[in-house]
Each structure stands twice: as C-alpha cells, then as structure tokens.
Amino acid sequence: MAYRSSLCVGSALALGCSPVAMLRPAGTLADGQRFEAGGSVAELGPRPYVDEPARYTGQAWFTAEVQRWLSLSGIAAFDTSAAAFGGAARWNAFRSQRLTLGPELEAGYAWVAGSFGATLRVFRRNFIYTAPRFGTLGSQWGVGVPAGISVDLSHGFVLRAEAQLSWQQLKYYNRRLHLAGGIAYQF
Q1: What DSSP element (H or E) covers 170?
Q2: CA spacing 20 to 30 A to 129: which of 1, 14, 160, 165?
Q3: Domain containing 147: what range?
C-alpha cells in the first residue's frame, strides 16, 4: 500500500504543469539584500506545426538567501483554470564580482525540474542570465533554454524580461517560445 501511495505521489509530481518562465534570481541577490518577492506574466507560444492558441500564465515567488551560497524559493504558478505550488533550492557554487554559477532543483505539485544558472553582472545591479532546464513541461519531459535580463530600477525594485525556447519530449516539432516579464522587490 505504501509503495502505491509513493508511486502516485511521484507520478503527480512528474506529470503536471510547471512555471513556464524562470524570472526568479538566477544568481545571488544584490549586496545587502536577503529577500526577493516578485510576480510575472508569461506567454507560452504555440508549437510550429499545430493549430493551437498561445497560453498565458502568471507566476509569483518569494526567495530567501539563507546563506550567500544557498537560496530557497517558494513558487506559485497559475492560469485561468489551475494553480500549482512548489519550491526551489539553488546552490551558488561559484561567485565572483561579475559572475555567479550554480545548480537549482525545483519541485512542486505537478512538476519537477533541475537547472544550471549563470548570471553575468553587466554594470551596477544589472544582469543578464540563463538557466538551462530539464524537467516537466505540461505532462511530459522537456528541455528549456531561457535568456533574460534583470534591470535595477531603484530602491530595491527590479524589472526582468525573459525569452525561452523549450522542447517537449526533445522533439523539434514540440518547440515553443516563452516570453515573460516581471517585477520584483529586493529587501
């Protein structure tokens, strides 16, 4: 009985919907800041050979930098018909004045994924980032490669924009373009 329960829970985690954009900090937070709260909207484009509409989703997160090498995030993803909640843990394995590198694991109700983030500080508190990801996208496994920019507005507010290409089941005809924008507050 316990085996069946754990199999059902494992299947639910691996076969569901996930956030369609990264948008959380892919590296450490700005100096002197330990927390970030943010929200975003994203468009999940249609596949190239399928007549389907684009889908729109939202995402909210709260990130705490527990140590300079460890960040924990609570994540909520939602659209007009469903919501999913989960969390992520990122290890900032390498950190310099300009570059941060590290793996991240995320899991939630109906998704599981792993990514490797790289953040490059361009100037002051403005960054470009990527976090290639392998995990569930919808009910199937897929790969996503995001590229984003994080712009420091003022007084802790950060604006982020991101584009991502993903491939469900690693098939070229399942390619999708994700476009997302969000705002966060670091404190």
Answers
A1: none
A2: 14
A3: 2-186
The number of angstroms, rounded, from the C-alpha of 75 to the middle of its chain's C-alpha atoms is 9
pLDDT digits (tens, 9 = 90+) for 27-42: 888 888 999 999 999 9
pTM, rounded to two decimals: 0.87
Residues 97-117 have a mean pLDDT of: 94
Residues 6+ apart with CB under 8 A from 71: 25, 28, 29, 63, 64, 65, 89, 90, 92
Number of domains comprising the chain: 1
CATH number at residue 112: 2.40.160.40
pLDDT 10s digits, 74-104: 999 999 888 999 999 999 999 999 999 999 9
Q: In b/e form, how buried is each residue of 28-62, taking b as 16+ CB within 10 angstroms?
A: bbbeebeebebebebbbbebeeeeeeebebbbbbb
Strand partners, 148: 129, 162
